[in-house]
Amino acid sequence: MPKFYGVDYYDIASLLSEEELLVRDTVREFVDDNVLPIIEKHNRAGSFPVDLVRKMADLGMFGSTLPAKYGCAEMNNVAYGLVMQIRSFSSVQSALVMYPLYTFGSEEQKDFWLPKLASGEKIGCFGLTEPDYGSNPGGMITRAEERGNSYVLNGAKMWITNGTIADVAVVWAKLNGVIHGFLIEKGTKGFNAPEMRGKHSLRASVTSELIFQDCTIPKENILPKAQGLKSPLMCLNQARYGIAWGAMGAAMACYDSALAYAKSRIQFGKPIASFQLIQEKLVGMVTEITKGQLLTLQLGRLKDQGKVRFEQVSMAKRNNVYYALEIARTAREVLGANGILDEYPVMRHMANLESVKTYEGTHEMHTLIVGEDITGIPAYI
Ligand SMILES: Cc1cc2nc3c(=O)[nH]c(=O)nc-3n(C[C@H](O)[C@H](O)[C@H](O)COP(=O)(O)OP(=O)(O)OC[C@H]3O[C@@H](n4cnc5c(N)ncnc54)[C@H](O)[C@@H]3O)c2cc1C
Fold first, then answer.
1. Closest residue to atom 37 of ligand 1, CA basis
2. Active site residue: 280, 360, 364, 372, which one?
3. Counting atoms of ligand 1 from 1, which one is nearest the CA of 157?
4. For the whole model, what pTM was predicted?
5. In angstroms, rounded to a whole number, what is the distance separating the alpha carbons of residues 357 and 368?
6. Residue 139 C-alpha to ligand 1 middle, in angstroms?
């Protein structure tokens, strides 16, 4: 497969620092050499390429913005965004496990878990969604009860990325009616994490149920600084930022594939790239990619300045995932029948983006968040 040099119509690279460019190129090379040769095989088999975890850790891809004393790369948010262009596993590990530990954890929890998660020695997952509570996680049923020196958890989570392979689950449950975060280690009695099967999307990623039946954990496993729905939402905001970048990564791969194909596929005696209708599709794709890139870059700069608002993150997640999916669908059209083959990355990205449009806040929920921000009127119910 030819090397991927990225899509940069507006010379956005000139807005990146040397360090950011190095991070981008390192990750790109890693994907070329280690991910692309095996990803379709795993996608077909519905298996997770677990061997990649340590290699990703060696590149500093987990918890990349956290301090070096925990074994993390201490990157800025733009460099982290560039890493997240190939996200999913790393986004959960970084934004949904390491971030809550770092933000809400005790010193002991941080010292124990963060270096192990950064090195890929341990894997984590984030359990918020329940079978009956998706967009409305505040209604969750999972409960924790205080019993002597322990907490006892009962309930179930669903759709949890990495659940079955995780060594530690960050689980959100109500304690006396208030949402708190708990660390549940693999193998704890009363805790099971069966894998969910039958997915047509994110097939190379593990998705699981988490089941708690009188699951008893020591009191020190509560995240002491997390309280209320705001805490898991802060984690999701962190992950959504990565998703906005990741969606553009997928979109660039689809555009790159469609452009190369259009230039080489001959119909009516000419490359299909010479037809106006095909050019119109390609121009639409590269324009939306360029807009999405500028959106995420400015978002990253605001984040580095400590000025970003969660509604701005919602706008970028909503926009970039929506257009990435449109780009994947359009790329599939350009490739004709070949577009459905796994010899090309397009259909895999398209199927994956269907999930991405739903997780970390659905497209609709982000519309309502930005809608409330600009009108001052909440329209959720
Ligand atoms: C592959 C995959 C991995 C995932 N990984 C994780 C994970 O690691 N951890 C985790 O906790 N969760 C995870 N999720 C769950 C994900 O976050 C939820 O699926 C998402 O929040 C939506 O919830 P739901 O599927 O129950 O849809 P619902 O909330 O039932 O929504 C169904 C539809 O109704 C719409 N809707 C709902 N309320 C409103 C409203 N007020 N106004 C307008 N429209 C509305 C939604 O936008 C959607 O279109 C994952 C999901 C997938 C598919």
1. 135
2. 360
3. 11
4. 0.95
5. 15
6. 13
Q: What is the pLDDT along the chain (381 residues), one digit of tens a residue?
A: 556 778 999 999 999 999 999 999 998 899 899 998 999 999 999 999 998 999 999 989 999 999 999 999 999 999 989 888 766 688 899 999 999 999 999 999 999 999 999 999 999 999 999 999 999 999 999 999 999 999 999 999 999 999 999 999 999 999 999 999 999 999 999 999 999 999 999 999 999 999 999 999 999 999 999 999 999 999 999 999 999 999 999 999 999 999 999 999 999 999 999 999 999 999 999 999 999 999 999 999 999 999 999 999 999 999 999 999 999 999 999 999 999 999 999 999 999 999 999 999 999 999 999 999 999 999 999
Q: What are phi and psi of 217, to 5 degrees?
A: -125, 155
Identify the CA nearest to 362 among candidates 299, 318, 326.
318
| Residue 360 is a catalytic residue | yes
Instruction: Round the CA-based radius of gyration of the chain to a whole number and report it.
Output: 21
Lining ligand 1 with CB less than 6 A are 92, 126-129, 134-135, 159-161, 202, 207, 355, 358-359, 362, 364-365, 380
Best probe residue, ligand 1, of 92, 123, 158, 159 (max atoms within 8 Å of C-beta): 159
- What CA–CA distances, in Å, run from 159 to 94, 123, 205, 330, 358? 18, 17, 11, 28, 11
Give nearest CA residue, ligand 1 atom 43.
364
Any residues with CB less than 8 A from the CB of 326 and at least 6 apart, and which? 288
Instruction: State which of 92, 93, 135 you would mutate to test the pocket of ligand 1, scoring each by most atoms of that ligand within 8 A of its C-beta.
Output: 135
